[in-house]
């Protein structure tokens, strides 16, 4: 009750300030500050930058966690970080990297590129877009607060019950996981829904589905996976929350519960999740390879159908994470065959990339280096995936470093290379200047070599029998040197990552000499037809799309710009609003309240959310218009 | 019609086009968005159904499904909720006739029926708790209350949503902004009804005979 009173007083105090009761100029000063513009923005390009900043911020945390683990494993029988602390590190590393790094960074690229690639002025739901970002940030922040208050979650990123129940994990660690992920998950689901609606409804005239760039296609399928894949996680997290906070018995065997339900729900989400993070990366690679090979993507249509097939099969294979649970040979065989089947569409993709490169006029920019480095790396991860899909073999590999090596090959070799390639590729579109290519190449080679040094050897560590998640090993196990090589590689990766940060810093300083112009890479797709950074309305006149790789098509026809599909007239834009931020703060308060079992605080937080929803619904938001004279002036300036 | 013209249209009281909910891009986006949301919610409920089916035999010391469920009362609740779907359709018909009174009448009845359904459900829960079927007593209890409770909270959300839209219609009338909202809320309401049809079958009827 005392917490409630304190919070209420605090809220009244804030309310007094904001309504001008305290200082009349305060609210004006807030509004004129540059930060306010970023906190309230509904512009997809700015939200893309926010996603990139958020993902980058948590990448630091996830990276430090990884380095600490590798330091502990440098010597046999080391006592640097052991036991529960090590468990916290590995749990937070996995959760952070998947949910708070890979996904937001991909959402950053999707936000920046999709509306530009399909010729739209914004996404279908700009408000929802902002809300999605702020919910991700609130959830991620909530979970990372666990380091300071009450201990981090320590049951792995998979959070298996019964280890994650009160009996074996007392304290608040798992509650942070459950609530943080729940809040971030709501945001992600909204993001997925938004991209789906955008791609279906907002395409420019002539931009038929089979003329969309492949990044838009793969993001489209990934968004569908988000939409149908995240609800099982939501349901599962609710069950764990009810068990931990409200005494439900879903997983308590003594009262008829069944822990395997969590495993099923988690992996029905979890397997589509790995395709959610890899498919957009495939899209980046396809666009980048076709751009820098200066060729139309080989087998475009087969790429599209392979993407759809991967998305469909992604939902059919979740139980291959559970071969050792004891579901029986029949179930295991069905899921094994379904898993192996995914290799077919993936193989189609790999060959299409190779055939696109074949005979191309290749330029090795940093973006292209990442794309080309991705192909063999990802294939290696794919091959170990096939090995793991064979149940009798999986019984040997299960929960060893072999699995760790496998999923880092696909998640770093696939997703992270894709993100970095996309970052170098679209950076000029986002900010108007390219990143420094010399530093970029250093960044690529150090990171690439460091990566293989870290994880190639982990296959061997796994085959020697070292289980994943263990915090130590003995000298006589004969894996000391292997672990040391792996740690050296991890340090090298960290150096590579620091080079990226350095590159961003240096390029910003040199931005005058790195000015990109609208089309720095001699691009093929629609986003390169407009200035960099694009004006707030993106397209002064919506373009008429006449072919696949439509911008390249116009250039080949000798045109300097896209043919407009509408007369120049005033453009309607949505207003900025602080409500997404306020709603996310409400969710954050509710989450923190529930973590500490202060249910009054939880209710207060949810009330903030509900009031904000009513404010959104009742206050008509007519947006504003950019008039023709202003558009003309902007276009001339660019 | 371009968005600028429509925007102008929204602020004047010119007669609405025949399908006002689909006349603007915003409206079409909203309708697509609610269908996508319904897709996601379907998966959410499917997971809760699966959990319930896996745990419904684990009643431990509490009553079994056969002992617990009273079909007549649940059938009455079903009838009420299905009727409310019909009345929300009549509300949308009123909207297409640009008839504010008809919209308010039928959506008002929809809200009342929804509230009656919720009342019956709360009464039912109280009865069950008296018979020893509780949320914490067994895995069956947890799964049952989570599934039915999630549906009930959707009904509550729908009631609140439609009521607040009725206030907006009372204030602003039927415009190109309020009509897509009404249409979308009515789609959501149908979805909540369909979920109940499955609950009635899978939980109650199968609980009696399966």
Automatic annotation (TrEMBL), chain A:
SUPFAM superfamilies per record: Cytochrome c oxidase subunit I-like
Catalysed reactions, as listed in the record: 4 Fe(II)-[cytochrome c] + O2 + 8 H(+)(in) = 4 Fe(III)-[cytochrome c] + 2 H2O + 4 H(+)(out)
CDD domains: Ubiquinol_Oxidase_I
UniProt domain Cytochrome oxidase subunit I profile: residue ranges: 30-546
EC code: 7.1.1.9
Localization annotation: Cell membrane
Entry's transmembrane regions: 6-23, 49-75, 95-114, 126-149, 176-202, 214-241, 261-285, 297-318, 330-355, 367-387, 407-427, 439-461, 481-506, 602-618
Alphabetized UniProt keyword annotations: Cell membrane, Copper, Electron transport, Heme, Iron, Membrane, Metal-binding, Respiratory chain, Translocase, Transmembrane, Transmembrane helix, Transport
Membrane topology: Multi-pass membrane protein
A Gene Ontology term for the protein's cellular component: plasma membrane
GO terms classed as biological process: electron transport coupled proton transport; oxidative phosphorylation; respiratory electron transport chain
Function recorded in the entry: Cytochrome c oxidase is the component of the respiratory chain that catalyzes the reduction of oxygen to water. Subunits 1-3 form the functional core of the enzyme complex. CO I is the catalytic subunit of the enzyme. Electrons originating in cytochrome c are transferred via the copper A center of subunit 2 and heme A of subunit 1 to the bimetallic center formed by heme A3 and copper B.
PANTHER family, sorted: CYTOCHROME C OXIDASE SUBUNIT 1
Family to which the UniProt record says this protein belongs: Belongs to the heme-copper respiratory oxidase family.
This protein's name: Cytochrome c oxidase subunit 1
Automatic annotation (TrEMBL), chain B:
An MF annotation (GO) of this entry: cytochrome-c oxidase activity
Subcellular location: Cell membrane
Ribonucleoprotein recorded as keyword: no
UniProt keyword annotation of Membrane present: yes
Classification via Gene3D superfamilies: Cytochrome c oxidase, subunit III, four-helix bundle
Heme-copper oxidase subunit III family profile domain segment(s): 32-208
Gene Ontology biological process terms in this record: aerobic electron transport chain
Membrane disposition: Multi-pass membrane protein
Family: Belongs to the cytochrome c oxidase subunit 3 family.
Record-given protein name: Cytochrome c oxidase subunit 3
């Amino acid at each position: 009750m005392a917490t409630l009173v304190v919070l209420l007083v605090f809220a009244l105090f804030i309310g007094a300030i904001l309504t001008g009761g305290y200082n009349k100029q305060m609210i004006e000063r807030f509004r004129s500050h540059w930060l306010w513009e970023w906190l309230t923005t509904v512009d997809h390009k700015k939200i893309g930058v926010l996603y990139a900043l958020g993902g980058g911020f948590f990448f630091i945390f996830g990276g430090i966690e990884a380095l600490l683990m590798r330091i502990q494993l440098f010597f046999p029988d080391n006592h640097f970080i052991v036991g529960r602390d090590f468990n916290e590190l590995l749990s937070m590393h996995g959760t952070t990297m998947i949910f708070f790094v890979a996904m937001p960074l991909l959402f950053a690229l999707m936000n920046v590129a999709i509306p530009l690639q399909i010729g739209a002025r914004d996404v279908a739901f700009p408000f929802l877009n902002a809300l999605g970002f702020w919910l991700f940030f609130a959830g991620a922040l909530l979970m990372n607060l666990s380091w300071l208050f009450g201990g981090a979650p320590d049951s792995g990123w998979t959070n298996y019950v019964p280890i994650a129940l009160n009996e074996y994990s007392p304290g608040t660690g798992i509650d942070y996981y459950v609530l943080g992920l729940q809040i971030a998950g709501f945001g992600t689901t909204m993001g997925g829904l938004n991209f789906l609606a955008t791609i279906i409804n907002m395409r420019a005239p002539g931009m038929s589905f089979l003329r969309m760039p492949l990044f838009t296609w793969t993001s489209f399928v990934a968004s569908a996976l988000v939409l149908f894949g995240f609800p099982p996680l939501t349901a599962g997290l609710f069950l764990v929350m009810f068990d931990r906070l409200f005494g439900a018995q879903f997983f308590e065997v003594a009262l008829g519960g069944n822990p395997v339900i969590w495993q099923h729900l988690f992996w029905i989400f979890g397997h589509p999740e790995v395709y959610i993070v890899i498919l957009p990366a495939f899209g980046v690679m396809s666009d980048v390879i076709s751009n820098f090979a200066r060729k139309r993507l080989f087998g475009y249509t087969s790429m599209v159908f392979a993407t759809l097939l991967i998305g469909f099969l992604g939902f059919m294979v979740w139980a291959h994470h559970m071969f050792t649970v004891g579901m029986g040979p029949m179930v295991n065989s069905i899921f094994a065959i379904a898993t192996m089947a995914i290799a077919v569409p993936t193989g189609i993709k790999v060959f299409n990339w190779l055939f696109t490169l074949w005979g191309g006029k290749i330029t090795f920019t940093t973006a292209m280096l990442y794309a080309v480095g991705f192909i063999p790396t990802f294939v290696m991860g794919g091959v170990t995936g096939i090995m793991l899909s064979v149940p009798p073999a999986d019984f040997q590999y299960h929960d060893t470093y072999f699995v760790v090596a496998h999923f880092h090959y696909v998640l770093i070799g696939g997703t992270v290379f894709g993100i970095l390639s996309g970052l170098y590729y679209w950076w000029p579109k986002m900010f108007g200047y390219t990143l420094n290519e010399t530093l970029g190449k250093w960044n690529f080679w150090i990171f690439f070599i460091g990566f293989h040094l870290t994880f190639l050897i982990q296959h061997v560590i796994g085959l020697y029998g070292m289980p994943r998640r263990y915090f130590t090993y003995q000298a006589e196990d004969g894996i000391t040197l292997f672990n040391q090589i792996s740690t050296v590689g991890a340090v090298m990766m960290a150096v590579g990552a620091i080079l990226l940060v350095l590159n961003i810093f240096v390029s910003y300083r040199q931005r005058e000499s790195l000015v990109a112009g609208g089309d720095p890479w001699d691009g093929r797709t629609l986003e390169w037809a407009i200035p960099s950074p694009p004006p707030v309305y993106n397209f002064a006149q919506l373009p008429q799309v006449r072919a696949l790789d439509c911008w390249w098509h116009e250039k080949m026809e000798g045109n300097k710009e896209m043919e407009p599909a509408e007369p120049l007239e005033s453009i309607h834009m949505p207003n900025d609003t602080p409500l997404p931020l306020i709603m996310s703060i409400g969710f954050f308060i509710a989450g923190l309240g529930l973590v500490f079992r202060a249910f009054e605080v939880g209710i207060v937080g949810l009330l903030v959310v509900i009031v904000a929803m009513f404010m959104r619904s009742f206050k008509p938001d007519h947006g504003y218009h950019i008039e023709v004279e202003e558009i003309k002036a902007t276009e001339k300036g660019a | 019609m371009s968005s600028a013209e429509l925007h102008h249209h929204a602020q004047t009281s010119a007669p609405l086009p025949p399908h006002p909910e689909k006349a603007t891009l915003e409206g079409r986006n909203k309708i697509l968005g609610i269908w996508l949301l319904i897709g996601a919610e379907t998966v959410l409920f499917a997971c809760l159904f699966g959990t319930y089916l896996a745990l419904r035999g684990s009643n431990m010391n509490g009553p079994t499904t056969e002992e617990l469920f009273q079909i007549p009362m649940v059938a009455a609740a079903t009838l009420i909720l299905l009727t409310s779907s019909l009345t929300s359709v009549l509300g949308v018909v009123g909207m297409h006739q640009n008839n504010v009174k008809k919209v308010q009448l039928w959506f008002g009845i929809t809200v009342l029926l929804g509230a009656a359904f919720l009342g019956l459900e709360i009464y039912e829960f109280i009865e069950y708790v008296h018979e020893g079927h509780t949320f914490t007593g067994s895995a069956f209890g947890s799964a049952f209350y989570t599934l039915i409770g999630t549906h009930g909270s959707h009904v509550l959300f729908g009631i609140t949503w439609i009521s607040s839209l009725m206030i907006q219609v009372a204030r602003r009338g039927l415009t190109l902004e309020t009509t897509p909202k009404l249409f979308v809320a009515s789609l959501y309401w149908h979805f909540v009804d369909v979920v109940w049809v499955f609950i009635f079958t899978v939980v109650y009827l199968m609980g009696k005979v399966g």
